[in-house]
Amino acid sequence: MKTSYHQQKVGDVEVFYREAGPMDGPVILLLHGFPSSSHMFRDLIPKLAEQYRVIAPDLAGFGHTITPTRSQFNFTFDSLYQVVEGFTEALGLNQYVLYVFDYGAPVGYRLAMAHPQRVQAIISQNGNAYTEGFSDAWGSWETYWHSPTPENREACRDSLSPETIRNFQYLHGADASLVSPDGYSLDIAYMSRPEAEEIQLDLILDYRTNVDLYPDFQAYFRKYQPKLLAVWGKNDPAFLPAGAEAYKRDIPSAEVHLLDTGHFAVETHAKEISELIHQFLKKIFITNQGKSQIMSKS
Question: Which of 1, 75, 156, 206 shows its CA 20 to 30 Å from the CA of 134?
């Protein structure tokens, strides 16, 4: 299946997105994380697109999505969510499966809480919603959340360095021979653009709002019991496997699979993840089709 590339205007933002698969197929909305873009899904998209309409936007402040400057646009997670919400409505996406990773999780879960009837299932790949998921690597970020001084902001800048992106985000806990340099090299290049570091530091500070919303996300899980698949790189230095297992506390039917890799699990395990997704979604859509047939007969 060929992947096509598009721009969609949402207010003052031009959202870049990748799309593949049949236009009438069930939609999988892929939401990437920090410090990446929809490019991270380059290997996964073709593996899902034979059966599903796969759509992967770049979040505001990332990749090829074009936003106003920092002085004209408020780079917060609420803003990122509002752009994604507008994007789904502009494309007429009335139902979709959410695939959330890293930053994509708090964006996607805001979307799910606002439109629970649209979410057919959730796939969380190292997408955290529980404090149990935090490792001890969050020290400088947490300090900045609690005391947003210029000095504490500057202490977070190391999170944006080429070395951290390559060695911490991509290579830690992964088989380095399986990690293409294309992903982290592109992310490093994106980070060198004007305002990129300041935008990311704004989002690092605002990440505290996501933690504040964890109880609300969890309440959504308990109330609506979405079908959920957690696929987790168990060697992730930021989000621990406990964050994956915690989903089962609120969604007893959740499926959890831990893979022997790091944070960017799709870099090394796209085949395994795609197979788990196909198995997971097959059960959901066959069940839904059966219900539709029964209702039509009655």
Answer: 75
**Predicted TM-score of the model (pTM):** 0.95
Q: Give the percent of the chain with pLDDT over 70.
A: 96
Q: How far apart are CA 240 and CA 156, in angstroms?
A: 21
Per-residue burial over 177-205, b = 16 or more CB atoms within 10 Å of its CB, e = otherwise: eebeeebbebbbebbeeeebbebbbbbbb
Amino acid, res. 293: Q
Query: Tokens 């168990």 map to which residue?
Result: 234
Q: What is the DSSP letter of 125?
A: S
Please, which contacts does 287-294 make with residues 24 or more away whose CB atoms are closer than 8 Å? 288/120
**Nearest residue to 286 (alpha-carbon basis) of 237, 227, 216, 223:** 227
How many whole angstroms from its chain centre is CA 221?
Answer: 17
The single residue of 32, 263, 269, 278 carrying the catalytic annotation is 263
Is 6 a known active-site residue?
A: no
CB distance 38 to 16 below 8 Å: yes
Answer left, alpha or beta for residue 254, where phi above 0 means left and psi between -120 and 50 means alpha.
beta
CA dist., res. 238 & res. 167, Å (int): 13
